Hints:
Strand order of the largest sheet: 1-5-4-3-2
Oligomer: single chain
Structural class: alpha+beta
Order of helices and strands: EHEEEEHHHHHHHHHHHH
Amino acid sequence: MAAIETTFFSLDAIAASGQVFTWQRTEDGWLVASGKRRCLLSQEGDAEKGTVCVRRANGDEVDANELTYWHHYLALDTDYVKILGELAMPEEVMDVGAGIRVLAQDWWDTAVSFVVSQNSNIVRIQRTMDALLDAGGGCAPGPHELGGLLANDAFATSLKLGYRRPYLEALAGRAVGWHPARLDRRDVTLAESMAELEESPGIGPKVASCICLFGLGYLEAVPHDTWIKRAEREHHVTWDARWGGIQQQYVFAWMREKGRGK
DNA sequence: AGGCAGGTCGGTA
DNA sequence: TACCGACCTGCC
């Protein structure tokens, strides 16, 4: 099986960070879906120094092409030693978030996940996404497929989307034969991508910034959720212009860890 | 028991 | 522009 030496990397920390809802825990690792691809990931060692094993979903070897894809997906082609060094976050924040990286997810996966996520909680979001992954044969249903699934009233009701259902239907309809311009051109600004996404009902600034950060590679995008607003209010946090999104993930983990206590 | 959860929308000032 | 209540659901 393909093995990758890692530093500043933890599968468990990433899985718990609330940035991805297309991972499912298995006996000895994670069954991961991204777009129409799937793989099995496991890790030995810890966030500071470890080894990640990449296999096909059926346990077989991956070829070089697939390995390159997952290497990028896991942000292992990004220099976190440099970035974390320059972000210079307090040690306490670094410790709580140890091993978190911002994944390079499939944009559609993130669009579906974060429309589902609005005003909800992580347990519930994951349950809905698990049901969608199952319905999609292990991968998130594509736009056309999702539209069909949601048109089935019994299935749609079983997802318990509440008022998010029409939002997801609108997203599916809009994304048939369409994707953000960012995927075609590198020169699309964050503001332009945000505006483009916010044309879809149910996508506001928070969800749009999550899609931009997790699914479109804008590492400067900072999703403003309730925890982050509190961090700004109570701790006067400011955001790095280049990697604010990475910083946000660490602050998010730190705030949630602190919030658990009280 | 009931506030709150990785928000967004439409209405009001 | 800025603020407010409503909104499905169910965790904690």
